[in-house]
């Protein structure tokens, strides 16, 4: 099958796009510079937290293929960069994978190709960072090839949300670039929303991502506040979400994980888009504060665990602690950014004896050493001094566990009221 589309970056975003395109009959090739990752995909092995293995096998049977050879990128009409942009040590997004994808694509770029960036980035990145890399071999965006940005919109594990029914936002370097990107995505989704330009489309991602983090931070602050007051926050949320306007329920937890990190444009590298040479003059204080609040939650969970043990005459040092669910989201194998690792680290540093259970994680290491995995969940809960629910996977019978466990601290508000201590 001839390739119509190249997807650069084969994580969850890239594979989901490739799946949607393959399902509509588009010839798709996936590019990743790592030969081992390509070999895994060719063998039907998917990265944790991405597609189901059956979905990948179906894609392969329909002609999808992965490669680490950049030469194939010169034979496609559309190239979408879905490279990861994790935060670096300075908390700014690491754009090195985007740069590597652009450098692989640029020498093979042909006139009239449509190039779209989907990776989470700061406003100004497509024009100020990606565009010069793509133009290094002579072609010019807006004149020789189309350049656009489209924020990725995925909700991993949510079976009610599908690529085809989720509106796709696109913004191009020129109106013609926007239309070229819209024509491509129009083959995959029922609705395409045109932004005024690239920076507007990039800022959509900033707004959507930070909206989630800021509201979770507020819910986390309310959790601490309500605990100190002796108020059941989970009952407060249950009542508040009956309001039919002006309120959307967010729930607290032990931290915020996943691939979508808070985006503060003031942490951006010092590149400026050609048509917009100004950097923001005002920091996004709400985003900074949200990151600070959410970053405190693992420490707060450990404090609550120690206090709960102390109330029952036990010390955290030497206590047997069972951690339930170490992934960032329920019913997924993805551990990216999951607060469980920091919580486990703090517990170990304070002298606790850990074991864990997660149906999606067969092996788990913390502080460079393996954490014992229990197969007999009921027995482990009965033997542990404290069971700590960090992620509510559907397979967990929490009512039964609440009866079996000596002490149960529920950080997700999933147990029946009064059955366990809740965050």
Describe the protein in words.
It is built from twelve helices and 15 strands. The strands form three sheets. The protein has an eight-stranded mixed beta sheet with strand order 3-2-1-4-5-6-7-8, sandwiched between helices. By secondary structure, it is of the alpha/beta class. 36% of the residues lie in helices and 13% in strands.
Separation of the first and last Cα atoms? 53 Å
Cα radius of gyration in angstroms:
23 Å
Number of helices: 12
Provide mean pLDDT, rounded. 91
The number of E-state strands comes to 15
Low-pLDDT segments: 272-278
> Which of globular, elongated, flat, extended, rod-shaped describes the shape?
elongated
What share of the residues lie within helices? Answer: 25-40%
Order of helices and strands: EHEHHEEHEHEEHEHHHEHEEEHEHEE
Q: What about the largest sheet? A: 8 strands, mixed
Strand content: 5-15%
The helix/strand class is: alpha/beta
